[in-house]
Each structure stands twice: as structure tokens, then as C-alpha cells.
Amino acid sequence: MSEHIIDLLNITKSYGDNEIIKDMSLYIRKNEFLTLLGPSGCGKTTTLRMIAGFEKPDSGKILFHGEDIANLPPNKRNVNTVFQKYSLFPHMNIYDNIAFGLRIKKMPEEEIRQKVTWALELVALKGFEKRMPESLSGGQQQRIAIARALVNEPEVLLLDEPLGALDLKLRKEMQLELKAIQQKTGITFIYVTHDQEEALTMSDTIVVMNQGVIQQIGTPTDIYNEPVNAFVARFIGESNLLSGVMLKDRLCEFAGKEFVCVDTGFDKDEDVDIVIRPEDIKITKPEEGQLTGTVINTIFKGVHYEMIVESEGFNWKVHSTLATEPGTEVGMKVDPFDIQIMRIPFNVLTGWVNEDNLVEIGDDKFQCTAHGFEKDETVSVYILPQDIEVYQAPKAPQNKKDKHYLEALEAFEGKMEEMGNTITGEVENFRYKGDDYEINVKSGDLDILVHTYNKVSIGEKVTLHIPAGKIKIRKREDPADVLEQGE
């Protein structure tokens, strides 16, 4: 096992009231190509900037070879950064662009010449020394930016979506070249992207992030074949995501039927997420299938056909080398080892303990079980999506002053106030999962994932009730315990 070169320990970072990184801990090994992968706003670039020294964490430690560098300025860290914008000096030729950092260090010119020549050979641009940046293509400019970073021989190279400005063909070529450069130099690469293909192609290790929380760490194969939760499954590749129940070891239920699987270690009748990749579904005759449905759409994708098969209200995505005409009734079969069983991920929120058994989340206070905390202590709050109850206010008629509507609305609001432990938000999106709906509710700065049987509309305001016994409070330094135990 390679030695750790960087350790992030319990890092938090906020901008105003918006917490971007939530108590993150992560180690990065020497000579590793590690990718931070996730959607916009997940905290990956903020993490990179803290490693570079452009941002300081609010709390926690950043260790470089075991020494805390959280307060060390960027120029004192043995790292270099390559940004999406190449930032080449337009008035300097390529040689001088690459040599710039070495001249700042007042290195002898002969040594500079040797290093610049080495860097240009490394990025396959030897002979470009006298060219000006404006004469180069986007891909060539990106290589020069990488050469300028590598010529300083950093122990760690940080790359912030460096291929984002390139066209698809160039991006694919540069993916292979970047991996080859990393292997030749042995430098640790930390790469930020939202592009799953880039991550799967280049990485030794992928760190999937969402809303400031690490969702999964693993090799590209592990991340794709064994996603730990629905977010990872949706973000990495295409998948069919359904709600299910783990009846017992190696037996689950979804889509109204029982299926043999290979997973163990779940509670009896535990609610779970089920993921089945489109390429793992086999189309059969209706009488031979575990499920039956009707093909409603078929598209040729170059290597395979993508079909949408409607079965009991759920649209299955199926990939096959053989096309089936729309309107055809078919059967579908899935092998046990192609059924991925995943624990449903907690909502991980930031809270403040006001006093025993009372925690503040956003602008609302909730009764819970929270003994042994200091007053106003910042804590991590864990809530399972299936433990949140959804209540919908009476729908307003055209005449919003209608007596019956106003009476019903008053009764609803009174019930919510009496119930307590509620929070109001707006539905941002929802998806049907074969048995229930998974919805995202936005309430102020909070994004809350909810599983419900209620049918909702995007933009609809809903009230969420969180029973006190379903709110789990943990000190900020030990969130991993809750996630690992799946409490």
C-alpha cells in the first residue's frame, strides 16, 4: 500500500450560511491518480482549492506528509494547479511561458533549458519553443499549461476540470495523454471533473461527492459495478433505480415480485434501493421473463439499441444488440449477481444543539434525542428519506377566498403546528421508483431527499414532518460511524 501524501481530516468549509464541505475526511496516496467527481456545487473544486492553499478550511486539518499545511500560503506548498482556463502569458513564447516559474526561483539558464526541453518532450510538443500561444490549438495550449506546471516538479498536480474547454475528440485524446503523463512522472494527480467518462478512463481512485459529503470512494470498476447508493448509481452510468425490500439474505422484492440476489447483511424486510444496469437486462419471450412489459421506444445508439419497456407503470431502460419493435410485448430477465442492493443514504444536514433534545436545522427547531452536547454545538444530523412524512396543503381553487378552502387550509396549518417537527419547502424534482416516489425538496439552503407514496408536482410547496425518534445526532468528528453502520 502506498504511503499517504495528503490527509484531509474533518474539513468543513462554508460561504456565509451555505456549508459547502461537511466534515470531510479523505486520504490521498503517493503516485495516485485520484479524481473528485460530482455535480456542480458538490464541493469538489472547493476541496481542490483548499489543498492548493487558495482557500482555508473553517475547521479541520490538511496534512502534507503528516505536517499541517492548512495555514501555509500556496507558494510554500509543493503543489501546482492546472485550471480550465490555461492562463498562458500571451506576450511570451512557449519556452518563456514554461520557464517563467523556474526564473522566479532564479534557477540557472542551462538548467532551465534542460527542464523546459524535458517538459515539452513529455507533452509531445518538442520544437514548439518559439511559437506564440495564439498560434496553438486548444489542446496544444492545454498541454503547455500542463508542461508549465510539471516543469516545477511538484509532488502533487491539481487539475480543475482542465479539459472542459476542449471539443469531444480532443477531450478523449487528452484523457489518455494525461494518464500516460501521470504514469511516466509518478506525480500524484488530483483531478476535478463532473464528467463520469473522464473519471472512469483515467483514475486509480474515484471520490464521488454530493452536497459536500463523500458518497463513495473506490476504483472505477467498484464505483460502476457496486454503487453504494442511488446517487452514485445515477451519476455513474445509466441505471434502472427502484425501491425494494430485502426480505432476507439473498432474497429481495421489487416491482411486485421476489428475486434471488447475492447480497447479505441487511435487516429482515429492510427498505433498500435496487439498481439494475440496462445492459444487464435480457429480453425474452413474455412467458420466459421474470417481468413482462411492452416496448414503447427503440433507439439505435451505434453499438447497441436502447429500448424503453413499460411494465406496471415503470419505464425500464434496456440495452441490447438486437432491436425490438415498439408495441411488442416482451419478457425481461435479470441474473442474481446483476441486481445491486443498496442501503438508502441518509440526508446529512448541519444542525446546532440549542439544549437537550432540541436541534436547530436551517430556520427550524426539532425535538430529538440529543444528550451530552454543549449548547450551540455544531453537529451532523442524519435523517433517512423514508422516515420523512409528506403533507400537502389543500389545493387552492380559483377563488382563493372560498369559505370551504379557507377552513380546510386553517385546519391543515393548525394540524401542522400541533404536530411540530415540520419544515416547509418546494419540490424541485421527483422520480417514480416502481413503488414510491423519490423527491427533492428545497427549503432555504437545505436540500432534502424524501421517499413518499404521495404524488407531487414540481414547484409544489409541501410540509415535511420528521418524527423526533428518526433524527440521529452525531458529533462532527464521527459521521462515518453512522454511514457504515447504516443505522
List key phrases describing it.
487 residues, five-stranded antiparallel sheet, disordered C terminus, six-stranded mixed sheet, globular, alpha+beta
Write the layout of secondary structure elements.
Blueprint: E1 4-15, E2 18-29, E3 33-37, H1 44-52, E4 59-64, E5 67-68, E6 79-82, H2 94-104, H3 109-122, H4 138-150, E7 156-160, H5 168-185, E8 188-193, H6 196-202, E9 205-210, E10 213-218, H7 220-225, H8 230-235, E11 240-248, E12 251-254, E13 257-260, E14 270-276, E15 282-284, E16 291-300, E17 305-311, E18 314-320, E19 329-333, E20 340-342, E21 347-355, E22 358-361, E23 364-367, E24 377-383, E25 389-392, H9 403-419, E26 422-432, E27 437-443, E28 446-452, E29 461-465, E30 472-475, H10 479-485
Parallel strand pairs: 3-8, 3-9, 6-7, 7-8
Antiparallel strand pairs: 1-2, 1-4, 4-5, 9-10, 11-12, 11-14, 12-13, 14-20, 15-19, 16-17, 16-19, 17-18, 21-22, 21-24, 22-23, 24-30, 25-29, 26-27, 26-29, 27-28
Main sheet characteristics: 6 strands, mixed
Assembly form of the protein: single chain
Helix % is: 10-25%
Total of helices: 10
Low-confidence stretches: 478-487
Short description:
It contains 10 helices and 30 strands. The protein is α+β, with helices and mostly antiparallel strands and 487 residues long.
Task: Provide structural commentary.
This protein has 487 residues and is α+β, with helices and mostly antiparallel strands. It contains ten helices and 30 strands. A six-stranded mixed sheet has the order 6-7-8-3-9-10, sandwiched between helices. Strands 13-12-11-14-20 form a five-stranded antiparallel sheet. A five-stranded antiparallel sheet has the order 15-19-16-17-18, with no helix packed on it.
